[in-house]
Design goal:
By secondary structure, the chain is an all-alpha fold. It contains 2 helices and no strands.
């Protein structure tokens, strides 16, 4: 994982955010696989999906940044 002192550019920020979203998605998925309570498992899977959406959004922003397009 990047250290705070290594974060110098918008790309660094987005890559760190992507790393954190990926870890969160993986954690929710792992918890859901071991959960026997249906409504809790459903919530964990919804949270996993939300993190995946965030990952797609960050990847899109990175792509725009790397191609010189505006982020918004």
């Amino acid at each position: 994982m990047a250290q705070e002192s290594d974060i110098k550019t918008p790309g660094d920020i987005l890559r760190l955010a992507l790393e954190k979203e990926t870890r969160a998605r993986d954690a929710y998925r792992e918890l859901a696989t071991h959960c026997s309570v249906d409504f809790v498992r459903d919530l964990l899977l919804k949270l996993e999906n939300e993190e995946y959406r965030h990952m797609r959004m960050i990847r899109d922003m990175l792509g725009k940044l790397e191609s010189g397009k505006p982020l918004v």
